[in-house]
Sequence to fold (569 residues):
Amino acid sequence: MAEVEWVNRYADEVIAEAARRAPGKPIVCASGLSPSGPVHLGNLREVMTPHLVADEIRRRGHDVVHLISWDDFDRFRRVPADIDQSWTEHIGKPLTAVPAPPGSTYPNWSEHFKAAMVESLAELGVEYRGVSQTEMYRSGAYREQVLLAMRERGRIDAILERYRTKKKVTQQNAKLDEADAAAAAEAAQGSGAAEEDDGSAATGYYPFKPFCSSCGKDFTTVVAYDDDSTEMTYRCTGCGHTETVLLSEFTNGKLVWKVDWPMRWAYEGVVFEPSGVDHSSPGSSFVVGGQIVTEIFGGEQPIGPMYAFVGISGMAKMSSSKGAVPTPADALQIMEAPLLRWLYARRRPNQAFKVAFDQEIQRLYDEWDALEKRIAAGQAGDAEVAAHTRAIGTAAGPLPATPRPLPYRMLASVADITTGVEEQLLRILHDLDPADPVTSLDEVRPRLDRAATWVATQVPAEQRTRVREEPDKELLATLDDTQRESLRLLLAGLDDNWSLDGLTALVYGVPKTQAGLPMDTKPTPELKAAQRAFFALLYHLLVGRDTGPRLPTLLLAVGADRVRTLVGA
Fold:
């Protein structure tokens, strides 16, 4: 029996678990994102995994909600390299109290980095309910949970103590390969686990961390707390301020991460939430949280997989701490939303994969187009069909698609050669197939725009195609009789073969004609060598290089008259 596709398998488990835990109530799936910097493509897996499961549950007719907790009440930890270092004065403040980066129109740091992700999630068709942790804590929504945690601080401390003698996270990560271990350490920097303070202090264990009422930072230590009155005294080592407040009224602070996360599981009734490698080691927040949620908050740990890291083709592992890391918005500039969804849907959460920003994106699109053809022909496997279905739409309906999805690599080549001039683009695409011409660029959008953006932003200048302005007279003067004959045969056949298929047959056929071979001759080593030599000659005469875009596409782009000028002088 074939293995059940991973989304269906988790949907089955979550529906059954929700029926056991809270029959008749909406099923809660959850994600957490820290807007401490660019929300990158690795963070997107934190969202896409529960999204795909929640969407499948919704397709089956169940009431389900996907929560995305914005950890915007986390502390500002460090200033990215590309930001004015004067922002160091804000380290220790909640993200919502830090000014947005220079030039931003958003009211604070958190909103600035949330904005791009919110827009990307809309484009990806992700339906969710956002929860601001700043708003939850500031409004007092968690007041009873905070007071409970402080009353039970001794028991929480005992749970944490079971793990304090465990190996450090860096040692736990030794079981990962070197690159993933480094990525795990970096991923922790963008989560609530970063530089984690678990509440231990010389003054005792307190799971609540106040922000100083004077300087606004969390360089604070609770020095006394009374369970009956909820009177709490804290001291700020940053500015020296000392204050006594009633915790039953005070909302300028939050639970430490290892207590905060399980508190939310119980508060929201979360049934499904994945976690990254950095949260899944022995003694980490997910493992410890499983005991705290049960023993302290009377809830249950969510079910959910550990997910692997997402890399970038041709780049190092992603880290939001490094500044210029690719985000979902970056990816959606060069690929359509269904393709990006497909990357996350077709791999099990524990399988690593890469998002292509280099030439590999062309092969990826070829693979996608081939899958669609197999599906149309009824030749695709069940898991392939399921991943494709999840990629092209959600329970709410289909995502926008390109009406006429021409090959991405072809569109990229045409955009490269024409430098995006629309009249030239339409002329070339119109001539691809005279029997069924493209009559409007809207037919090939948005894929055309994504390919053009890829060329403009990702292809190095030295790899861009530049068609010669004038014939290479020096090269033309050195041609031998065989080379001259090959060019004559090409020019003689241009008019009768002016289409993509026709020009393909022509350029491969010229060396066959010269060798006295029929057009249906199978390639031999000698024939392949002759074809390569002919192609190299054409590339030199047209673009001054050994290689370039596929010759049929290049010839269409250059145009018959200009081809005659460049190769027939």
Remarks:
- The two ends are 66 Å apart (CA to CA).
- The first strand starts at residue 27 and ends at 33.
- The CA atoms of residues 524 and 530 lie 10 Å apart.
